[in-house]
Write a structure and sequence with these properties.
The chain is α/β, with parallel strands linked by helices and about 450 residues long. The protein has 14 helices and 16 strands. Mean pLDDT is about 90; it is low at about 1-25, about 420-440 and about 445-454. Bound molecules: alpha-D-galactopyranose.
């Protein structure tokens, strides 16, 4: 049975059966991880001779760390800087240990980790449970314990473990085994897995119970690319499969729809707001992959939107669901704090997938959305900051949603007796009462909503 000894197998199996392996017990990632990850923007550019400012090198990560600190990202929660593929040398060292490319990481990995720690940041690394990483660098297969120990000694705080060049059927054993070795080092390391993605891709049904008990986050869908089409495919996957994947998310264990591409080449301003809003609804890790040195201010503002980040980081950790979808209009809702008398507050995203040249009007009541708390909800638009006042469940209101854009509102339960304007008689302008005018008005009229969150 090769590198996997019978004894290790027994230990891991016992640990899995006793529920003592993994993410849930490592106490980490109580809210979705936030930070910066190299892959989507910088890929496997190793040409530091001709392209020194964009190649995968220690200086790239140091520069990003400096900006994350200097420009306020860290204070907002983006506290991880992580390597992705292509940091490694082609061979292990004489003792069989992983080593970085010596030309691109001349100071070594411990120094890079130290650089992050001195700035109040965490340091992430990338590896692969296979013979090779996806880009062909040495994988961890056959070296699991050595590599876990190496990462701990280097001061790694976060490990992304990919799954190229390994067989998906081996992953049910391999991912828990490496998680076991990570935990055994005693150093807390967030464990990011690609396990379900490779299994789904090869038509296997992932064992999410085991995945939740092993990983802090996991990819379940294809790599994000720099396009709105790619973002929409991910949104569709999450919506179409929500009954099986949403219940798996919670403090310490998250679905990972992949990196934020906001500020790159492929998304418009509206589409960027849509990605940020949807990743907040998904309780997704917020892993920026953008050149922070050159990002335009309006895109930076999206990434730094405190109110949207607060939805993403809501302590309940309940992932949102798609509650309406018709003719290119979608409504998504995520239960959030505060909770009062058993009633959740909600973040609600109105997403317009249409390509009309004009915004679409969506008109609903909160009750149609499943928000039935009798004292109503204080509603705030999280991108433009407009506060709509307190709205009772049967009050009809409308939002105008730009093509490929989103309106994201926070609906906070109004505590009865708080004097918060309950039962306000004159609705604010944005919540005009009016009969349905187009097919998007009253989207629930033919589609009665059941409160999906029970
Ligand atoms: C896979 C992963 C990506 C990235 C690349 C690196 O495709 O899903 O996120 O890590 O490998 O090669």
């Amino acid at each position: 049975m090769g590198a996997w000894s019978v004894w290790t197998l027994v230990v891991v199996l016992v640990a899995v059966l006793c529920g003592s392996v993994g993410g849930l017990e490592n106490g980490l990632a109580r809210t979705p991880p936030m930070g910066w990850l190299a892959w989507q923007r910088f890929r496997c550019n190793t040409d530091c001779v001709n392209d020194p400012h964009h190649c995968i090198s220690e200086s790239l990560f140091m520069e990003m760390a400096d900006i994350i600190v200097r420009e306020g990202y860290r204070e907002l929660g983006y506290d991880l800087v992580s390597l992705d593929d292509c940091w490694l040398a082609r061979e292990r060292d004489a003792r069989g240990r992983l080593q970085p490319d010596p030309h691109r990481f001349p100071s070594g990995i411990p120094a890079l980790a130290d650089y992050m720690h001195k700035r109040g940041l965490k340091f992430g690394i990338y590896e692969d449970y296979g013979n090779f990483t996806c880009a062909g660098y040495p994988g961890i297969l056959g070296h699991l314990q050595t590599d876990a120990i190496t990462f701990a000694e280097w001061g790694v705080d976060y490990v992304k473990l990919d799954g190229c060049y390994s067989h998906p059927t081996d992953m049910d054993r391999g991912y828990p085994e490496f998680g076991y070795f990570l935990n055994k080092t005693g150093r807390p390391m967030v464990y990011s897995c690609s396990w379900p993605f490779y299994q789904i891709f090869s038509k296997m049904e992932p064992n999410y119970t085991a995945i939740i008990n092993t990983c802090n986050l996991w990819r379940n869908f294809d790599d994000i690319q720099d396009s709105w089409e790619s973002v929409q495919r991910i949104i569709d996957y999450y919506g179409d499969n929500q009954e099986s994947i949403v219940p798996n998310a919670g403090p310490g264990h998250w679905n990972d729809p992949d990196m934020l591409i906001i500020g790159n080449f492929g998304l418009s301003y509206e589409q960027s707001k849509s990605q940020m809003a949807m990743w907040a609804i998904f309780a997704a890790p917020l892993l920026m992959s953008v050149d922070l040195r050159t990002i335009r201010p309006e895109y930076k503002a999206i990434l730094q939107n405190k109110a949207v980040i607060a939805v993403n980081q809501d302590p309940l950790g309940i992932q949102g669901k798609r509650i309406y979808k018709d003719k290119g209009i979608e409504i998504w809702a995520r239960p959030i704090t505060p909770v009062f008398q058993g009633h959740y507050s909600y973040a609600v995203a109105f997403l317009n997938r249409r390509t009309d040249g004009t915004p679409s009007e969506v008109s609903v009541t909160l009750r149609e959305l499943g928000l039935a708390y009798p004292s109503g909800y204080g509603i705030t638009d999280l991108f433009d900051g407009v506060h709509y006042g307190n709205v009772l469940p049967d009050k009809r209101f409308k939002v105008d949603v730009n093509p490929s854009g989103v309106v994201l509102v926070r609906c906070a339960v109004v505590k009865s007796g708080s004097g918060g304007g309950v039962g306000r008689r004159v609705p604010p302008a944005h919540f005009r009462q009016h009969p349905p005018q187009s097919s998007f008005n009253n989207p629930f009229q033919n589609n009665l909503f059941n409160n999906q969150f029970g």
